[in-house]
Write a structure and sequence with these properties.
heterodimer; A: about 290 residues; alpha/beta; Helix Hairpins; five-stranded mixed beta sheet; about 60% helix; elongated; B: about 130 residues; alpha+beta; ATP Synthase, domain 1
Chain lengths: ~290, ~130
């Protein structure tokens, strides 16, 4: 049985933890709003760009001559995985979920006898992956100092990926990130970005449109595809940022509630033992008086 | 009949302009293009220059992609800015940078071509 003083200290410490988690929840909620707005604003750009590329690919007559970024370089040996996580913890299962998904993929790739290369973005993911797959990590990036991630940062990574592709350092590239569905649900996702993955549905729907190209299709595609890589990475960043705040908010909300429960329980315990000690003292006094 | 068509200008962070216009002038890679209603479907990309939507709205862009289909004009550009929001100090800064770059001999002809346009436009709007 802990003493009264111990209980008092416990209650105090839990209460101060609760204050912290509550504050973090509020901060996350405020940041979430902005991040969510950014993610939603960023969606049209990437969707429309994909759409243009889709339209372009429809009008390419000769698929064998398509740019390598679109058709792949014909090999299927080396896989580059870009794992995008947060730089900060205390956001529930956010980082672990991405890493878990990524590790599943790594395992699958290695089993198939592929060569694996990993780039981690965000320090938390790096820490988690380092332990098991440290020897495959070729680069790590972190944008801890940046308050807000913009196209510049995404472009930096995009350029690096393209450069590696041109040096034939890898054949296929995947990115791992959390897709922001709503505040409570974030879905870890793996997406293939090189070769550009194009959904082939609706092929007949608007294939009647014949575009005028200036300059010709190939040149436009060559200009667009590297941009598309950066834009897809940016999209992943924005979705991730919103997911991180959402995840942190729910995690901190849960923590605050748990702390509240714990305080209640401890207070009851504290009151009971205080009452018990008072009763004990009374009994002692009464029995002392009776014996006189 | 109205001669207007839909115009949308989108950067990676947000939608910069969305509205209707009679006429849009674009600085395309191979020369200036004016888009009017019922232009044939077009995909092209931009060089540095001014985009004029109607008479009032002007934008500065360094690069970007343009799609025109079924009277919808879509401009995607990571570097686009409305002329109203751009400050003259910023322009001079960009101008200096561009002039520094162009004096470098190592750059390719294509880059030189693009930088030339950039300097020209920046001088024009400053």
């Amino acid at each position: 049985m802990p003493s009264l003083d111990d209980l008092k200290k416990r209650i105090k410490s839990v209460k101060s933890t609760q204050k912290i988690t509550k504050a973090m929840k509020m901060v996350a909620a405020a940041k979430l709003k902005r991040a969510q707005e950014n993610a939603e604003k960023g969606r049209p750009y990437s969707d429309k760009l994909q759409n243009i590329i889709l339209n372009l690919t429809k009008s390419i007559s000769d698929e064998t001559n398509a740019p390598k970024l679109l058709a792949g370089n014909g090999k299927d040996n080396i896989y580059l995985c870009v794992v995008i996580t947060a730089d900060r913890g205390l956001c529930g299962g956010f980082n672990s979920n991405i890493c878990k998904l990524a590790k599943n993929y790594f395992k699958k790739f290695l089993k198939e006898g592929k060569e694996l290369k990993i780039i981690t973005v965000g320090s938390k993911g790096h820490d988690q992956i380092k332990a098991e797959y440290g020897q495959y990590i070729i680069d790590k990036k972190s944008f801890k100092e940046k308050k807000q991630i913009s196209f510049l940062e995404a472009n930096e990574i995009g350029k690096k990926v393209i450069e590696l592709f041109e040096q034939e350092q890898f054949d296929k590239c995947f990115i791992f990130y959390n897709n922001f569905k709503n505040v409570i649900t974030q879905i870890p996702q793996a997406e293939q970005i090189i070769p550009t993955f194009i959904k082939k549905e609706d092929k007949n729907k608007d294939s009647a449109i014949f575009y005028e190209f200036e300059p010709d299709e190939d040149e436009i595609l060559e200009d667009l595809l590297p941009k598309n890589v950066s834009v897809q990475i940016l999209k992943a960043f924005l979705e991730n940022a919103a997911s991180e705040q959402g995840s942190r908010m729910t995690a901190m909300d849960n923590a605050t509630r748990n702390a509240g429960d714990l305080v209640d329980k401890l207070t009851i315990n504290y009151n009971r033992s205080r009452q018990a000690s008072i009763t004990k003292e009374l009994i002692e006094i009464i029995s002392g008086a009776e014996s006189l | 009949m109205s001669q207007e068509f839909k115009v949308e200008i989108i950067s990676p962070d947000k939608t910069i302009y969305s509205g209707k216009s009679n006429e849009v002038i674009l600085p395309c890679y191979e020369g200036q293009v004016t888009v009017l209603k019922d232009h044939i479907p077009l995909i092209t990309f931009l060089r540095p220059g001014l985009i004029e939507v109607g008479k009032d709205e002007k934008f500065y862009a360094e690069d970007g992609t343009v799609e025109f289909v079924e009277n919808n004009l879509l401009i995607l550009s990571p570097t686009i800015q409305s002329l109203k929001n751009i400050k003259s100090a910023q322009i001079s800064h960009m101008l200096n940078e561009a002039e520094k770059k162009i004096s470098d001999d190592k750059i390719s002809d294509k880059q030189k071509y693009i930088l030339n346009y950039k300097i020209e436009t920046l001088k024009q709007i400053n």
